[in-house]
Design brief:
The chain folds into three domains: about 220 residues, no CATH class; about 140 residues, no CATH class; about 70 residues, Homeodomain-like (Arc Repressor Mutant, subunit A), CATH 1.10.10.60. Helix content is about 50%, strand content about 5%. It is extended and about 95 Å long.
Length: about 475
């Protein structure tokens, strides 16, 4: 073995700094892009904000046909042949009065700041109560053990041992009865039956159906969905009209007394990257104002390059080159995003009008082939990007859907199948809900070949209980 030199030919992709920056900017969300550009302006003296730049026109600012930054998309006639004139006229025509608008009232920041959790609400009432300091300590331990839906999940003996010094279970039970009558009434219950009984106990004794409703809640609640009012009337030996009144009273109660004030995750707000609307019978797509940041080269610093020393000039020339790369890549990002959004609107115009039921099967590969881009480029272009549409603000990924079918032209998107399942379940008989097998048969008879396992998967993805659980809920 001797060392030797050998020349070989090969191809290798070299990731230049410009290409790396372009790829990174393309997959940034709007908020991340703003932060990136703000940092660039702060660190690069050759960059500055163009405060007097041209404002991009959107449906909110459009006046007539002066929108030069929007792209018109011809509506597919086959996709909208079933639309009625009334439906088409109900859409906005450039005046911003679209369906699915925000309709905000008041400050969103104030709404988030004013939100009170269930535990905050209960502790506030505990401090205002007339309990002794010892009972307040017990009440605080009980409230800490209450879940977000208002139920007490911890055993009473466990709560008793967590208090220093430990107390008797009877003392915990006494304070628990007080907490259960806090607002919302029934909070701290250990079962649905107990929650309903506490709420019934707080009603006036003359309330119609209260006595029978109490008996049902205590002894027959689990059998109510299967027996119904007629079966319970026969078993309780009560008139059916009185049992129906009691059942109606039970249905008016809240089985999850703490859900409305339960702990909720902080709301996250998204900023749309593109705006989609219909004007004069044409779909129009435009980049949102913030998606085309108005940056420019600082001409004062650029002029200093020829008047400074060699070392300073070299630094300024490097910063100028980086500024030009950034402006070029930001412009390329906006063009790519606009091309992808325009293609999505062309393919899914029926989805924008009719909802999930009209969503056609569409993949990244199809969009990439139509635009002459790589799949990874399309994936980066839609990552964490949102579009403001007449149906609300939607992620661009919502325009894609896998196909369900046998490979023919009659394939249906998975989102459309989910919409069909949701519609069938909403129209079912609550006493006899449709099983997954029955749903699959109904869809197959409608020309959508899906298996029972597929129906079960989509139902679980939509957080819809099984047929047996729906019987209990009803």
């Amino acid at each position: 073995m001797k060392p030797r030199l050998q020349a070989t030919l090969g191809q290798q992709l070299v990731m230049t700094p410009q290409l790396r920056q372009a790829i990174r900017l393309l997959q940034l969300s709007s908020i991340e892009l703003d932060a990136e550009l703000t940092e660039a302006v702060e660190t690069n003296p050759l960059l500055e904000w163009d405060e007097g730049g041209e404002v991009i026109t959107t449906p909110e600012t459009a006046n007539g046909d002066t929108d030069r930054d929007a792209v018109e998309v011809e509506i597919d006639a086959s996709a909208v042949e079933s639309w009625s004139d009334a439906e088409l006229d109900s859409w906005t025509d450039g005046n911003g009065g679209s369906r699915g608008g925000d309709g905000d009232s008041g400050s969103l920041a104030e709404q988030v700041a004013d939100r009170e959790t269930l535990h905050d609400h209960l502790f506030w009432q505990l401090h205002l109560s007339s309990l002794s300091p010892r009972d307040r300590q017990i009440g605080a331990a009980i409230i800490d053990a209450i879940s977000d839906d208002g139920y007490l999940r911890e055993p009473l003996d466990t709560i008793a041992t967590t208090i220093d010094p430990p107390v008797r279970i009877e003392d915990v039970l006494t304070v628990l009865h007080v907490v259960q009558h806090f607002d919302p009434i029934g909070v701290g219950a250990r079962s649905v039956s107990e929650a309903l009984c506490v709420q019934l106990g707080a009603l006036d004794e003359e309330t119609p159906g209260r006595a029978i409703a109490m008996r049902i809640a205590e002894e027959h609640l689990e059998r109510l969905p299967r027996l119904g009012a007629a079966g319970l009337a026969q078993e309780l030996n009560e008139p059916i009209d009185e049992v129906e009144c009691a059942v109606a009273l039970l249905l008016s109660l809240d089985p999850r007394p703490g859900a409305q004030l339960g702990e909720v995750a902080p709301e996250s707000y998204v900023t749309p990257d593109v705006v989609i609307w219909r004007q004069h019978g044409m779909w129009r797509v435009a980049l949102a104002d913030h998606s085309r940041p108005r940056l420019r080269i600082n001409r004062s610093y650029e002029a200093l390059i020829t008047r400074t020393s060699s070392s300073d000039a070299a630094y300024l020339r490097g910063q100028l080159q980086e500024a030009r790369w950034l402006l070029r890549n930001v412009e390329a990002r906006g063009e790519t995003l606009l091309r992808v959004a325009t293609c999505l609107v062309q393919r899914q115009s029926a989805f924008l009008e009719s909802g999930d039921g009209a969503l056609r099967p569409l993949t990244l590969r199809e969009v990439a082939a139509e635009l002459g881009l790589h799949e990874s480029t399309v994936s980066r272009a839609i990552a964490r990007k949102y579009a403001r549409t007449p149906r609300g603000t939607l992620p661009l990924r919502a325009f894609f859907a896998s196909s369900v079918g046998n490979g023919t032209a009659e394939e249906t998107s998975s989102a459309a199948v989910q919409a069909m399942i949701r519609q069938l379940i909403s129209a079912e008989n609550p006493r006899k809900p449709l099983s997954d097998a029955r749903l699959a048969e109904t869809l197959q008879s409608a020309g959508v070949p899906v298996a029972r396992r597929t129906v079960a998967k989509y139902r679980e993805a939509m957080s819809i209980p099984s047929s047996q659980d729906r019987v209990r809920i009803s």
